[in-house]
Each structure stands twice: as structure tokens, then as C-alpha cells.
Amino acid sequence: MRRTELCSDLYMKKANKKRMNKILEEILIIIPFVLVLCILSRCIPNGTVRLNIGESGISEKAIALTFDDGPSGYTEELLDGLALYEARATFFVIGSKAEKNPEIVKRAYDDGHLIGNHTYSHIDFYKSTLTEIEENITKGSDVIEEITGSRPLFLRAPYGNVNFIQLKQLDSFFVHWSTSTYDWFKEEEDYIYKRIMKEAKDGAIILMHDTREATIKAVLRAIPELQEQGYELVRVDELLSRNGAKIKMGVPYRSCKYDRGAVAF
Ligand code: NI
């Protein structure tokens, strides 16, 4: 009798252990599904917001020259050159610098260039919380709107640092670039000029900084030559909306081919 009780006790313990193991296995299978669903739920909403600028009427051979981190003491010389060649460009300005030199930003806007947001203090998204990033972007947009009367639509993340989740969480139209001139790395007119000319192709978005004298000299040398090759130098919004293409939020646009439309990643 005692022996039978012992056996039954052992059997119950074994059965309970088996049941617990099964429950644990099921939990381990469910967790990844829940995580994927959470990520997807954050990704879906802003992908549905589309910007329709309308047909920009830009030709089949166009390039967007973009300048980050200004305004600076060199920006006005660049604006003079752009006016001389009747070229349009995009300036991703830093809010704190724009605040100190509002007249330069106002002139760029009045001259017909696009003013984009490069955050208020050049914040690194990889090292910041979502709240810090949102506040910094809003502060940058507020400064630009105060100066130009127009709220910037486009954002370029400092250093290009923005991860997939942030792209989806931030309600912004992102512009990256197809070509960097590496003018931050090598401040030499010839080097920057050659980079521009080598990488010039239809739909290119070229990254430069209007904070360097060598960049201004190089780009003003390149502009008439690019125009001679038949390129139209346009703003990023004009380039991205060629052929009436719509622009989606949360997508890092890098170029815009005439026949393929805006290209991300
Ligand atoms: Ni920057």
C-alpha cells in the first residue's frame, strides 16, 4: 500500500513537471510573435501619409544640390553664385545657427531655395530618446517658420543617423543623399569638385556643407559645367515630385530617377 502511494506521488510530480514545461515552451513561442506585432504596429501608421506636391515640371536631367549645417559666413557667397547661375538648391539648416543669422536664411528662402530642417542643435538620433529628438525637431521647425513664415516639410537627420523604428515614429519627410562629397573629411576644392562631377547623374541628391570655403569654391566651379552638360539644378522637393510622384513619410529618400521616381534605402 505504501509503495503504491509513493508511485502515484512520483507519477503526479512527473505529470506536473511535464505540464509546466509545455506551458513554458508555449510562452517562448508566443513572445517573438508579440514582439513582431508591437514593432509592426509602430511601423504602419505614418507609411500611409503621403505628400503630393504636384507635378514639378522638372526636366529629365536634374540634380539636387543640398547644403547642411548652415547658415555660416560662407552662405551668402554661395547664394550670390546660385543667383548668378540661376540654380536652385536646398539648405538643411541648424535651428540654433538660423536663430543667430535669420537674414541669411530669409534671403535663401526669398531667392527661391528650399529650407529644410536639420534639427535645432544637430542632435544625434542614435544617442537620444524619442522625446528629445521630437523636441529638437520641433524647435528647429519653429525657428525656420518664424524666419520664413513657412514650416519646413523636409528633415535631414544629422550624420544620417536614424534607425528604422525612428523613421516610422517621427512624423517627418526624410531626405538622405545619393552622394556625399566628403567635404567634412577633406576640405580641398579640387577634391570636392571632382566628387561632384564624378557622381553627377540624373536624380542625384548631393550632400555638401555651406560651412566650408572649399565647398563654396568647388560647387561654384561645378555648377556652370553641370548646366553645360544639360543638368537642371533644382530643389529636393522639385526633384522628388517629378512626374507627379507622391512622397511618403518615414522613408529615407536618397535619389529620384526620372523614370523610376523617388528611391529610398
Ligand atoms: Ni549635419
Structure at a glance:
This protein has 265 residues and is α/β, with parallel strands linked by helices. It has helices spanning 2-47, 75-85, 95-100, 102-110, 130-148, 164-169, 189-199, 213-228, 236-240, and strands at 50-51, 62-68, 90-93, 114-117, 154-155, 173-174, 179-180, 205-209, 232-234, 247-248, 253-257, 261-264. The mean pLDDT is 87.
If you had to describe this structure to a student in words, what would you say it looks like?
By secondary structure, this protein is of the alpha/beta class. The chain has a single domain (50-264), classed as Glycoside hydrolase/deacetylase (TIM Barrel, Alpha-Beta Barrel). It has nine helices and twelve strands. The longest helix is centred in the N-terminal third of the chain and has 46 residues, at 2-47. The model has no long low-confidence stretch (mean pLDDT 87). Nickel (II) ion binds next to loops. Nickel (II) ion is lined by residues 68-69, 118, 122, 158.
